[in-house]
What we know:
- It contains 2 helices and 6 strands, in the order ββββββαα.
- By secondary structure, the chain is an alpha+beta fold.
- α1 packs across α2.
Amino acid sequence: GERKMSIFAYNGGAMVAMKGDGCVAIASDNRFGTQFNTIGRNNVKHHQVGSRVFVGLPGLETDNQTLLAKIKFRMKMFRLREEREMPVKSATSMLGNLLYSH
């Protein structure tokens, strides 16, 4: 019979980040697909959300989009309330709280 594709199969990716003396390097694949089928090769998995803050989201694409929107919202709210950009350590804490809030 015909196999039905599940949205939950659109997972994964590879990502690595390194911190150097005054620099960072981030690398990820751009593949979007399910199992051995490639649907696209332009799926961005790392995002700059502040001048010094990047997030890597290699998981389920719908979850990535939701999480990225929440991160950007919280970064903007911080800027509006504090009238400054969120520091890296605060962004790390915010992300940890967001990930473990449900």
